[in-house]
């Protein structure tokens, strides 16, 4: 006899509403059915009324946590339609803001994850360290979370010498704090009891189920879009992808902590190699044609498709966000685990539901 | 033992939060607070209305009026960079709770007399 | 005229689509996404597959009134995107693994087929 329990739209660990109907048999989950649609805003239809410059502001507001990379990917896709090259200083500025965004997003996830298995003091510590990163973002771009740092043609704001000193001081403060957090997540006895061996996905299953991001890299697949041909500026900065072999929740946590160290190193290298010069090129005319652009967000791979028809409005904008690709893997890993571990398994894919249902 | 050291150190440090209504932090210089309009040099061209993404600015030429919907403004500064006469600036004070929804300002623009036709 | 287009292989009918997709799965390609556009009264589908950072695209034109076949039997992750297009464009797919019948995002009193 099975009963159906709603892992409802409102739950204390979920940052955004998603509903899963769990079929349980005596404390063990047997099946799961997702139900989306609580925050659908229909943002893809805005291209009918807003022109291609104003759509940048809409694309940034799809998600509050991963907003800088949405804006940067959209502007790069439209620049492909115009066939322009932006100056080097603009490219380095975009890299710096992407990596600062990744640092704040992973610190937020570490805090929520600790809250998911009941460790509240660790949750407070992670979010306290995140405040230094947000203060630096407010002092350089003007806003804590939605910083419009890129426009079609380049970057929108430059960094002065005081801003660069602030960013380097923040990197020196945050790195030993992340080392303290790593000691707790990786070595603590009770944390390991809850995470090791939970919701294991083999290498073949993670690849075929269409997962992306740290969920894919935690199972041994080496796939990170910052190594692809569109983003070869990362090769000059000495980037290495973080991969683990085991495929359980513990391995995915280690992947995200290693990415934090990698992002701090990339910010320092980018600041030391940034050349002087212009930050944007002027754009004339209207876009025509179609283009596809992919980027690596904190949660995985995002794909943008734009199509222009020669007027100031685009014809079609399509966005495939990383959580959209990770949700079917929940249907494959949830059967067989206990009811008390369901919040941890749902949080381990890093669900960002307002991205999923733009 | 990592967590135990952190907690014992936190007992002796001062709290990380500030007691808000009694202790207010001054806003940073680059913070985007609200839009301020200076009507002296305005020529009522309407470029700020065309560029605004949420359509928060309305310019009427016959009544010489410039109107801003404060609740719709997202502080993106497109109007600040687009104005040809530099009439709009962004200030770092936040708009207070209880602010009015619309700001209406009359523009004292003087109509220039048409040039006399050449003989 | 479109100067920049993405390179894609043309597919003529449903049976050829399923055969090509199975061939790609045996080759080791990963399903990325599917794009739906309105074109000349019907709909244009673009399927995107990825392996080792290189993309492979398939283009398939659906005439008005035709019911396209679903690939969720071969790749399970395709079921979410095909349900989304059932809501937003008013299409009906045959052979879906889990079918929400047009209620994944939209409720009974919302506008029908907003993007069509």
Question: How would you describe this structure in keywords?
Answer:
heterotrimer, A: 358 residues, alpha+beta, Cytochrome-c3 Hydrogenase, chain B, three-stranded antiparallel β-sheet, 14% strand, B: 119 residues, Alpha-Beta Plaits, two-stranded antiparallel ribbon, 3 helices, 5 strands, 18% helix
Task: Characterize the structure shown.
- The complex is a heterotrimer of chains A (358), B (119) and C (116).
- Chain A is of the alpha+beta class and 358 residues long.
- Chain A contains 13 helices and eight strands.
- Chain A has helices spanning 55-60, 67-82, 88-116, 120-141, 161-187, 189-195, 203-208, 214-217, 233-236, 249-273, 322-333, 342-347, 353-356, and strands at residues 3-7, 19-25, 28-35, 150-151, 154-155, 288-297, 300-309, 314-320.
- In chain A, the strands form three sheets. In chain A, strands 1-2-3 form a three-stranded antiparallel β-sheet. In chain A, strands 6-7-8 form a three-stranded antiparallel β-sheet.
- The radius of gyration of chain A is 21 Å and the shape is globular.
- The mean pLDDT of chain A is 90.
- Chain B has 119 residues and is an alpha+beta fold.
- Chain B has a domain at 29-106: Alpha-Beta Plaits.
- Chain B has helices at residues 2-12, 47-51, 78-82, and strands at residues 34-37, 57-60, 65-69, 88-91, 102-106.
- In chain B, the strands form two sheets. Chain B has a three-stranded antiparallel β-sheet, with no helix packed on it. A two-stranded antiparallel sheet of chain B has the order 1-4.
- In chain B, β2 and β3 form a beta hairpin.
- The longest helix of chain B has 11 residues, at 2-12.
- Chain B starts with a helix and ends in a 13-residue tail after the last strand.
- Chain C has two helices and four strands, in the order βαβββα.
- In chain C, a hairpin with a 2-residue loop joins β3 (42-51) and β4 (54-62).
- The model of chain C has no long low-confidence stretch (mean pLDDT 84).
- Chain A binds chain C through residues 33, 36-37, 40, 42, 44-45, 80-81, 83, 207-210, 223, 225, 227-229, 288-292, 301, 303, 305, 307, 315-316, 318, 320, 324-325, 327-329, 331-332, 357, and chain C through 2-6, 25, 30-33, 35, 37, 46, 48, 53, 55, 75-77, 79-81, 98, 103-107, 114-115.
């Amino acid at each position: 006899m099975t009963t159906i329990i709603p892992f409802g739209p409102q739950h204390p660990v979920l940052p955004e509403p998603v509903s899963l109907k769990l079929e349980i048999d005596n404390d063990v989950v047997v099946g799961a059915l997702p139900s989306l649609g609580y925050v659908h805003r229909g943002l893809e239809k805005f291209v009918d009324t807003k022109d291609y410059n104003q759509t940048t502001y809409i694309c940034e507001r799809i998600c509050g946590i991963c907003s800088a990379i949405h804006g940067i990917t959209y502007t790069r896709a439209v620049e492909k339609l115009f066939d322009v090259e932006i100056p080097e200083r603009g490219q380095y500025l975009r890299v710096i803001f992407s990596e600062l965004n990744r640092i704040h997003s992973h610190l937020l996830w570490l805090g929520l994850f600790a809250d998911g298995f009941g460790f509240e003091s660790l949750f407070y510590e992670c979010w306290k360290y995140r405040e230094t990163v947000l203060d630096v973002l407010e002092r350089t771009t003007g806003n804590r979370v939605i910083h419009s740092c890129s426009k079609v043609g380049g970057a929108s704001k430059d960094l002065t010498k005081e801003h660069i000193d602030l960013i380097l001081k923040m990197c020196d403060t945050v790195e030993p704090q992340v080392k303290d957090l790593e000691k707790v997540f990786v070595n603590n006895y009770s944390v390991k009891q809850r995470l090791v061996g939970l919701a294991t996905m083999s290498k073949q299953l993670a690849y075929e189920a269409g997962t992306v991001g740290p969920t894919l890299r935690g199972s041994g697949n080496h796939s990170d879009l910052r190594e692809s041909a569109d983003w070869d500026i990362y090769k000059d900065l000495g980037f290495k992808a973080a991969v683990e072999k085991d495929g359980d929740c513990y391995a995915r946590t280690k992947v995200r902590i290693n990415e934090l160290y990698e992002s701090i190193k990339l910010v320092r290298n980018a600041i030391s190699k940034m050349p002087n010069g212009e930050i944007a090129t002027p754009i004339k005319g209207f876009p025509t044609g179609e283009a596809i652009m992919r980027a690596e967000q904190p949660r995985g791979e995002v794909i943008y498709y734009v199509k222009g028809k020669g007027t100031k409005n685009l014809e079609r904008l399509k966005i495939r966000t990383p959580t959209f690709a990770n949700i079917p893997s929940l249907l494959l890993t949830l059967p067989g685990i206990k009811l008390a571990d369901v919040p941890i398994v749902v949080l381990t894919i890093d669900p960002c539901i307002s991205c999923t249902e733009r | 033992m990592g967590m135990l050291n952190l907690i014992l150190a936190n007992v002796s440090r001062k709290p990380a939060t500030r007691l808000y209504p009694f202790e207010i932090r001054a806003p940073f210089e680059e913070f985007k607070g609200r839009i301020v309009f200076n009507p002296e040099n305005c020529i009522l061209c309407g470029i700020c209305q065309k560029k605004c993404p949420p359509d928060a600015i309305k310019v009427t030429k016959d009544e010489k009026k410039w109107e801003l919907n404060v609740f719709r403004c997202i502080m993106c500064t497109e109007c600040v960079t687009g104005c040809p006469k530099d009439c709009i600036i962004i200030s770092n004070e936040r708009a207070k709770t209880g602010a009015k929804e619309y700001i209406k300002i009359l523009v004292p623009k003087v109509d220039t007399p048409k040039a006399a036709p050449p003989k | 005229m479109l100067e920049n287009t993405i390179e894609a292989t043309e597919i003529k009918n449903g049976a050829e689509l399923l055969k090509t997709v199975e061939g790609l799965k045996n080759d080791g390609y990963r399903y990325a996404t599917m794009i739906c556009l309105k074109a000349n009264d019907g709909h244009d589908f673009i399927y995107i597959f990825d392996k080792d950072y290189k993309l492979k695209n398939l283009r398939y034109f659906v005439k008005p009134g035709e019911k396209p076949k679903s690939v969720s039997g071969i790749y399970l992750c395709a079921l979410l995107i095909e349900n989304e297009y059932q809501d937003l464009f008013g299409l009906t797919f045959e052979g879906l693994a889990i079918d929400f019948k047009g209620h994944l995002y939209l409720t009974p009193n919302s506008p029908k087929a907003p993007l069509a």
